[in-house]
């Protein structure tokens, strides 16, 4: 088959951020090209012009398309016959809005890291810009890309677990037990700085992933939230631990716990969902297994690509035979892959879904910012219950 169907070529990718020393920039660059549907051809890789130029060779970006700023890149690429089809934004939170807005208004598709913006007002303004433009806009809540997470969603929405009663979603790390930000550790420094991270620390960084995972798997719409955030590392400016309780419109309850100060925990995102007919459990650190339980029956262990009992959503998300682990890069690539399908349709002038997409989109990004805002608001009220629903929330 031709590459990208009727487009018959690779999509051209531009990268914002990801300069020397970056973690997530390299993840974007690797995942985006994993399925041979895109090529990284341009970038503004750092806010430091010299570093931006010096980083280009790390990605095989030609010198003439290694830009010293995102504004220069947007202006120059818009004039090219072979301009980029999309840009990936892999920069700290406080820069997302202006970068994404600039490229969307210039006609480009965007893949943006989460959280979507610095605050809720920016997120809602960006949503208006995206809706007006008709651009494809993906947000990298990458854990939704794991095959067995998509399998879990298909099972829940198909009624296999019955009515959903409870969700327990947790993201537990330990890397910020000590104040690494005081020693110049780059990733710790901006994540704990309110001027760069926003009003939340741990809950904005990883709590949003835990919340989004529950929303993705169940499709339940929230109504109220209560939250308590805490700073345990003396002198830190933003939360490093928190717990939220969410009420959904069907009566279900969810707990969201996030920590970055738990000794010995690495990247332990895990979720449990209880329904009237059954329950399931999935762990990001063992992503190729999904445990399903029903009273009076042996526990069932679903494995990635394990057999015909798995659904279509899972099947579209795997690349390797059973027993060959797939994980972080592949899940990230699955988010890209479903966004590419929409980008190809846009390029061909065809209609495409913008709200109820498989990939996390700008609406999920706005709800993530609302989640952060309401959690901080509730915590300031000693965990008081407050209304929690965005008028454009999707299922």
UniProtKB/TrEMBL annotation:
It comes from Gemmata algarum. Residues 149-281 form the GFO/IDH/MocA-like oxidoreductase domain. This is Gfo/Idh/MocA family oxidoreductase. Residues 12-141 form the Gfo/Idh/MocA-like oxidoreductase N-terminal domain. SUPFAM superfamilies: Glyceraldehyde-3-phosphate dehydrogenase-like, C-terminal domain (SSF55347), NAD(P)-binding Rossmann-fold domains (SSF51735). It comes from the Bacteria. PANTHER family: CONSERVED EXPRESSED OXIDOREDUCTASE (EUROFUNG), OXIDOREDUCTASE.
